Amino acid sequence: MARSPGPADRSATLATSPWCSLEWRWQPGRDADCVDDLLALIREHRSTYTELGLATDRAEEVYIGEEQDGSGPLLIAIFQWVDGEAAGRAHQHPRIGALWERMATLVEDRAMGPGMAFPHFDARETL
User: Fold this and answer.
1) Domains of the chain by start residue, with CATH
2) Alpha-carbon span 42 to 115, nearest angstrom
3) How many percent of the chain have pLDDT more than 70?
4) How far apart are the first and last CA of the chain?
């Protein structure tokens, strides 16, 4: 069982936390291949992060569902950065930027959030 982080562990800000969830709101009404195309890009995304030494080897979890307000499909992936600076390095890497540009063609902004979002968070405890 994992221990809960102590006060010193909680001093890192959310922006530099080693956990990230990726959210994609793909365009409803696109053909069924859109989901497969997005999943293929996510696999390539993961492979690139790993190859560049930005993500840990912990498996990335991918979830597919619907927005809470029913406005369309939602895909969420959760992975772990190797360190608190990896996200910044990813934002500067041209290969990552090229992947994000390709992903942007498959998603749309909605009331529940932008087409693509990359919130960072830290684990408080394992229950």
Assistant:
1) 19-120 (3.30.70.100)
2) 14
3) 83
4) 8
Angle between helix 33-51 and helix 94-104 axes, rounded to 10 deg = 170
The span from the CA of 87 to the CA of 81, in Å, is 7
Tell me if 31 sits within 8 A of 125, measured CB to CB: no
Structure tokens at 44: 């390539």
Distance (Å, whole) CA 12 – CA 18? 10
Q: What is the pTM of this model?
A: 0.76
- Distance in angstroms (rounded) separating the CA atoms of residues 52 and 117: 21
Percent of the chain as helix, strand, coil, to the nearest 5: 35, 25, 40
Residue 58 per-residue DSSP state = S
